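[step 3/7] fold_predict: job queued, chain A
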Amino acid sequence: MRKWIGAASVALLAFAAMPAQAADKVVLMLNWYVYGEHAPFYYGKAKGIYAAEGIELEIQEGRGSAATTQAVAAKTADFGYVDVPTMMRAAIKGAPVVATGVLLQTSPMSAMGFADKNIRKPEDIKGKTVAITPADSMTQIWPLFLKKTGLKESDFQTVAGDGQTKLNAVINGQADLLLGYVMDQSMKIKDATGKDVYPIKFADYGINMVSSGIIANADYVKANADLVRRFMSATTKAVEAAEKEPKAAAQSILDANPKGGKIDTLTQGFELTIPLYRTAETKGKRPFQVTDQNMTETVNLLVEYGGLDAKAKENPKAFYTNDYLPKSGS
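[step 4/7] structure written:
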C-alpha cells in the first residue's frame, strides 16, 4: 500500500511541476504611430484581458494602413488595425485579407481648423485655404463632401503636402483648415500649439462610411479559428473596459511607451473616438458588430468616389465577417 501511495505522490508532484500551457504569441500591427485611438489595445494588455484568453500580445506601431495591410497579407503580422476601406482596395486586387471586426462604424474624417477662426459649417469654408495630402483616404472622399454640402472647388484654395506639411500649414497659418481625423490630427495640432481645434465632420453631412477595424490574413483565420475568436473576444472586452475608463486607458499607452504623447490629448483623442464605435443601428450592441447595410453603403461610396474597383459591389460580404465576434453578454 505504501509503495502505491509513494508512486501516486511522485506522479502528482511531476504533474504539478509541468508548466502551464504556453500562451499563443500574437502580433498586432497598428495603422500608425501610437495615438489616442489605440488606447484599448494597450489597456487590454495592461489589464490582463488578452492573457486571460491565453494570448501573449505584442503591439507594433505601423506606418500607414496600406503598409500594415501588406504586412498582414504577408503574415509578418497576425492582425492589423487599419482603415478598412484601404484594406478593401488591397483585397479587391488579390491581397488575402479580411476584416474580423469593424470598430469605427462612423467616419472620423473632417475638415478642421483652429476653433478661434470660427469655421463651424461648410459655408464657412468659402474663401479659405484647405491643406490636403493628395491620394490619401480623406482627399478621395472630399469631392463627395463638396457635393453633399453644395461647395465647389472654386469656393476655396488648396495647398498640398504630406501629412506633416499639412499639419504645419495650419499651425503656421498658411492654411485655415486641413483634412484630418477628429481624434488624430486635431490632437497633434493641440499638442503643438495648445489651441483647440474645431472639426466639420463628414459624417454629419450624410457620408456614412466605416473606418478602422481589425484585419487578418484569410488563410490565417481558417487555420487558427479558435485563436481568432479568442483574440476578438479579448479585443471586444478591452474596448468595453477602455470605454469605461478613458484616462486610465490613455495612461496605459504612456506606461508602455513614455514618448507616446501627452496624457491630456491622448485622453481627449480617445474620448473623441468612442462615439465612432456605433451607428444608430448598432447602438447598445457590443463593439465590432457592424451591419451589412453599413458595409454595403461603404463599398458603394468607395466605388463611386474612392477609386474602389466596381466589382467590389458584387459581394460586399467578401471583405468582412462577424463570425468570430463574441455573442452578446459573453
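[step 5/7] annotate
The first strand starts at residue 24 and ends at 29.
The chain is about 40% helix and 15% strand.
exit 0
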